[in-house]
Amino acid sequence: MPNQPIERFEIAINTPAGRLSTVVDVPTSFVPVTAIVPLLRRLGEEAQLLEESQLSAQGKPRSCTKGCSACCHMLVPLSPPEAYALMNRIRSWPAEKQEHIATRFTQVKSVLLVKGLWHRLVELGESSQPPDDETLEPINQEFYALRIACPFLEEDMCSIYDERPAACRELLVTSPADHCQNMASHTILPIPAPVRISPVLGLLWSELTDSPLRLIPLPIVSEWVERHRDDNEQTWQGSRLLDAALDKVWRYLSQSFPQAEDKPRGEG
Ligand code: SF4
To answer: Does the beta carbon of 167 lie inside 6 Å of ligand 1?
Structure first.
């Protein structure tokens, strides 16, 4: 958020891949939840770099390369803060670019309607229960089998690279990149994400707004945000958002990795 007074915090987080120490700037004013999205994505990426450097030292470097877009045919999950941030970004584009992406989303919707997946994705986004693996797995598999390219994929490259969802940033592998073209017949070796930022943001949103945990499939994001537009009018003090977000990071780490006991610290 440019031109806003900010407060600087030093953050320390113990992750399974090592200790992450970084500095973050947070607006002192009241801001919408979308203000915390870039900061949390950065924390997630820095934590992932720790994991990557450990694997690299073991002779298992990341093999994902520019132009490799196999994972851009998977179903991308978004948390509500990411969904609002993404649509805000799209609305800031010139009209022609907005129309182009709207057409791409409409094309994807048409295929999903024909294949009977659209309504299941809408149900998923509106569900008041967090989806379990038994619900998600068949939907993910059916979606991937359709080989539908993400609406943001242009010439095998992400057209919103700096704004791409956290889930996209966390899909990295050490196995040969071409194996991802046929996941059914190859072994894929993913790089574990020490902190998954989309569930953290989902938990944050759920607690801030006293609403169910949501998982929004990317193809329905525009319609979901339109249906839930009023929910995004609240604002919170930047430092309060940071505190609440760090609490959710800690909760994620302590549930996924019980040995990571120290609470993340944010010191101004
Ligand atoms: S948002 Fe970008 S990185 Fe994510 S699936 Fe779409 S094209 Fe790929």
So the answer is: no
Nearest Cα residue to atom 5 of ligand 1: 72
CA of 170 to the centre of ligand 1 (A): 11
Task: Please work out whether the CB of residue 189 comes within 6 Å of at least one atom of ligand 1.
Answer: no
Report d(CA 1, CA 248) in Å as an integer. Answer: 22
The residue type of 6 is I
Enter the pTM of the model. 0.91
Cβ atoms of 13 and 264 within 8 Å: the answer is yes
**Residue 182: pLDDT band with limits 50, 70, 90:** confident
pLDDT by residue (tens digit) across 30-49?
A: 999 999 999 999 999 999 99
19 strand-pairing partners: 14
Query: What are phi and psi for residue 173, nearest 5 degrees?
Result: -135, 160
Ligand 1 centre from 261 Cα, in Å?
33
- Ligand 1 near 215 CB (within 6 A): no
